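Good morning C.,

I know you're traveling, so I'll keep this short. The sequence:
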Amino acid sequence: MLELLDYRRRVSEMYQTIRGIGTDAPGARICFQQLRNELFRMHPQSPLDEQQKTTFQGLQYFDYDPAFRVVARVDTGVKPVRFELDLGEDERATLQQFGQVSFQVPSGSGTLGLFWIAGYGGGLFLPFRDTTNGAETYGGGRYLYDTIKGADLGATLDELVLDFNYAYHPSCHYNPRWLCPLAPPQNRLDFSIPVGEMTWQT
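The tokens, ready to paste straight into the viewer:
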């Protein structure tokens, strides 16, 4: 439990660092990559097992593109759709949609649902899928926000930073021992998001 606590604290500190620099500032994404690689390589709660760590050479990313960073207004006028999650070992949690954000990037315009996780602490959760999945990125999609784990790019009372350059894969991409909640149907985009983390090659 203390290892998990330490891992979450380090993730939270990592995001605090890049928010302090400014996610769109030169060097912020490099800092993010270095800190994330260190956690994967060294920490006991890494998504990688001990054998995978011995050959780990770092995560791969698309080039940073500032056009894929937008600040979106949160629309809370949505139906509170609920989803039940299987977390393994007879544990379950609930996702409830509380809002949505609309955005435009060079590859298309879309809307993503914002979810609140109940059942094991609560927190903002924003997963998504796009047309890079299954080829350049994990078939199950990627995450932008998971504030239970400390993944927080920045928000005000009515706006959210959507910097897709920091999109990352859930732990189940790296090792089947993990169970991960994936993007519901309303968070599946019909265009590509060619920034952020790419498929990890063993």
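Safe travels,
E.
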